[in-house]
Amino acid sequence: MLNYLDAPAFRRGLFCHGHGNGKGRGRGRGSDTDTGTDADADADAGYDRAMLRINDDLAIDESELDYEFARSSGPGGQNVNKVETKVTLKFVVDASSALSDDQKRRLNEALANRITKDGVLRVTSQRHRTREANRHAAIGRFIELVDDALSERAPRKPTKISRAAKRRRLEGKKRRGQVKQMRKPPKIDG
């Protein structure tokens, strides 16, 4: 079983816990057939809810994520035909309570090729042999995608080419032209 501290997102401190009695951690809802307690039941029982820390200003409740499990084409030997280790993380951008309207708009624009017509951001991982490792990889990639999409881009300042750079370029072109002239056979006057 993968230790939570082994996953890149956990090592970088991207997970934090909500307030509660400290007895446990909430889980995302999955579409698999496992008989585990879902996030709503954990919350009703007074358990902490896991928050995914996207950046210093934003954390998303893990209960807003859905997981779908399927058989993977990745590593696993004969195990790959029996166990559903491929993880698809699904996040409904417009339904998120953690994002402002501006953040939702920026996410929809920046990740338009990854978001379905229904407004669902999908991140898939099948690199690892275990479901838990693939789940952590998908969460880590999700955090990177959202953080990158929401980061402010500095506007490009157009620059002017300096006179010295233009002179060097023209001198280089002249030298190259002279080299090519030297390759021609000499003209014979007759």
Can you put this structure into words, describing what you see?
- The structure is a single chain.
- This protein is an alpha+beta fold.
- The chain has one domain: Double Stranded RNA Binding Domain (2-Layer Sandwich), CATH 3.30.160.20.
- It is built from 5 helices and 7 strands.
- It has helices at 8-11, 39-44, 101-110, 131-150, 163-183, and strands at residues 15-17, 29-30, 50-55, 58-61, 65-70, 86-92, 120-125.
- The strands form 2 sheets. A 4-stranded mixed β-sheet has the order 2-5-6-7, covered by helices on one side. Strands 1-3-4 form a 3-stranded antiparallel β-sheet, with helices on one face.
- The longest helix has 21 residues, at 163-183.
- It is elongated, with a radius of gyration of 27 Å.
- Residues 1-48 have low confidence and may be disordered.
Quick tags:
190 residues, Double Stranded RNA Binding Domain, three-stranded antiparallel β-sheet, 5 helices, 32% helix, disordered N terminus
| Beta strand % | 15-25%
Total domain modules: 1
Strand arrangement within the widest β-sheet reads: 2-5-6-7
CATH fold-level name: Double Stranded RNA Binding Domain
Give the SSE string: HEEHEEEEHEHH
Q: What's the CATH class, please?
A: Alpha Beta
Number of DSSP strands? 7
pLDDT average, as an integer?
Answer: 75
The stretches of 5 or more residues where confidence is low (pLDDT under 50) are: 1-48
* CATH second-level architecture: 2-Layer Sandwich
Q: Any idea what the shape is?
A: elongated
Structural class, from secondary structure content?
alpha+beta
